[in-house]
Amino acid sequence: MKNYMLKKHLLFLSFSLLYFNITIAQKNKPMPVIDMHLHALNADDQGPPPLKVGSPFDQFGANDPHNNYGETFMEASKTGKWAKHNSTSPTTDDSLRKQTLRALKENNVFAITSGDVAVVRNWHKEDPTRIMNAIYWDFSSVKNRGLNIDSLKCLFKSNEFKVFGEVAIQYEGYSPSDSSFEPYLKMAEELDIPVGIHVGPGPPGVIYLGSSNYRASLHSAFVLEEALVKHPRLRVYAMHAGWPLIDDMIATLYAHPQLYVDLGIIGYAVPEKEYYNYLERIVNAGFLNRIMFGSDNMVWPGTIKVAIDRINKAKFLSPAQKRDILFNNAARFLRLTETEIKKMYQ
Ligand SMILES: [Zn+2]
After folding, report:
1. Based on CB atoms within 10 Å of each CB, which residue in 19, 155, 267, 334 is the most buried?
2. Could you tell me the residue ranges of all domains in the chain?
3. Cα 230 from Cα 228, distance rounded (Å)
4. What string of H, E and C letters represents the secondary structure of 108-128?
5. Which DSSP category does 258 fall into?
């Protein structure tokens, strides 16, 4: 009898320990985050690694036109002298992938991940739960990567790729409302594929780093208007939230209730005060429920945590508002099912 009681007691104790461990594990595991803007890249995609990125930048450098801006920018990327806090890129494709996947796991992030089809497939194979496939696209992708309407249709119809974006035609000088982009919008609307479009900042001075057709005027969310009107059933989000043209962004959100934004690079790279002012303006204007988290991590896995922390530290956001930005708004935009959401919370 005694023995039995002891066994029972031990059994109970082990159950309690198990329960205790699960509770601890859940407590240690951060709440899930949906990242609408992750890149699957090779280590040298932003230039020869290791490179530093301000997270955030304190200033964006001045260039005497006597000097080549490409050299000025590269020197700043090597030394990190435009910021007190920098993130440094890993030097090999393998370490970039592994460190990014580790950052997703540690911060409990599920990420819409875009890049070359083969690279995204490779990352997805390694972590099929956290990597949700998306296609990085611009007009040069038709010629260089064979990504025309027909091949895109196949990739989306197979259900392997969930999001069309990042669409980066701003770097080529195109507005998403340009007639040449029209067939792609039509395709996405017909297939009901969400589209993420770069509207806002690239690297500072990117016009002088090779993207000679990029224009600051294309930061305006107004570039989306005609596209949205022509395709009212399309799910669209403005990546980088049209920074820094806040009035254009708010007016466009007001006029088009189907439009969402992701925070993109402003989440970690834009100086703190400006970032918070910008984000707070969108919230104050009444559009909190259409702001989604996007890390825009390219080759700096450390920036994912920086961007999440900046949301969590924002004094003007309540805990519920933080959850909306970090998870709920994206879950609604992507039309995740209850089962899918439950799995992310496990
Ligand atoms: Zn991006």
Report:
1. 267
2. 1-30, 31-52+87-345
3. 5
4. CEEEEEEECHHHHHHHHHHCC
5. T
Q: What is the pLDDT of residue 27?
A: 61
- For the beta sheet containing 259-262, the strands, ordered from the edge strand earlier in sequence to the opposite edge, are 33-40, 109-115, 131-137, 163-167, 195-198, 236-239, 259-262, 291-292
Coil, strand or helix at 181:
helix
Q: How far is the CA of 296 from the centre of ligand 1 (A)?
A: 5
Mean pLDDT in residue range 221-227: 98
Maximum C-alpha span of the chain: 92
Report CA(113)–ligand 1 centroid distance (Å).
Answer: 10
Q: Which CATH class is domain 31-52+87-345?
A: alpha beta
Q: What is the mean pLDDT of the chain?
A: 93
State the distance from the centre of ligand 1 to the C-alpha of 40, rounded, in angstroms. 10
Cα 167 to chain centroid distance, Å, stands at: 12
Cβ atoms within 10 Å of 72's Cβ, excluding its own: 16
Give 211 Cα–ligand 1 centroid separation in angstroms. 15
Residue 221 contacts residue 244 (beta carbons within 8 Å): no
Q: For the residues of 119-172, what is the DSSP string, one character each?
A: HHHHHHHH-TTTEEEEEEE-THHHHHH---HHHHHHHHHTTS--EEEEE-GGGG
**Quick one: DSSP state of residue 70?**
H
Query: pLDDT grade, residue 48 (50/70/90)?
Result: very high
pTM listed for this prediction: 0.92
134-179 pLDDT, tens digit per residue, is 999 999 999 999 999 999 999 999 999 999 999 999 999 999 999 9
